[in-house]
User: What shape does this take?
Amino acid sequence: MHIRFDQAELRYGDRVALKPLTLSLSEPRIGVIGLNGSGKTSFARLIAGLAKPSFGKVTLDGLDTVADEKAARAKTGFIFQNPGHQIILPVIREDVALGPKSRGLGAADVDRLVDETLARFGISDLAVRRPHELSGGELQLAALAAVCVNRPQMVIFDEPTNQLDLKNRAKVKAAIEGLVEQAMVISHDLDLVEDFPRVLVFHEGTLVFDGAGEDAIARYREIAGC
Assistant: This one.
């Protein structure tokens, strides 16, 4: 998928969350790093259609995220920092089935898609579990299944390894690496994006570096003073 920002800016009242940005992206793996409040999540929310540009525009394969909102939003899936907040039904299988049902698919097709998607991420055994029974890593994978069952072209992760232990971090990292979809990863976990072909560094609402993972991390360390 080709993403383009044309002088896109995001404001919340008088506060500028993201300064005017012109940029094109199409890499299969894109990292986004920066200090807290740097604009990285605002940038990702504009792509996912969760925020609308105050000025300028954002397009996905030529679809304007405002004028073509529904079609553009269908191209992306967003996984929040706390994936438990986006799993809204009592049982994991029901939640994964929600998207296909909303598209009007028949029961047999819904069941097939849900089974395939749960198996794809190795979580078939979680199908009848409740969100509060799952570990952080299991919640990430359940949310990922609920997003990917809708066949987005890109999955956007907001701090996917935040507060995960080593075992669950490894599971989530492997799931991201195995995606056939494009992935955008916003993270303070620098090892997660180190090998990405393109990593963006934001600082105070401005894109200050755009390049390969190792170089981007070096620039980020300069900004952070460590």
In short: Residues 107-120 form the longest helix (14 residues). The mean pLDDT is 95. The chain is about 35% helix and 25% strand. The beta strands are 3-12, 15-25, 29-34, 55-60, 63-64, 76-79, 154-158, 182-186, 198-203, 206-211.
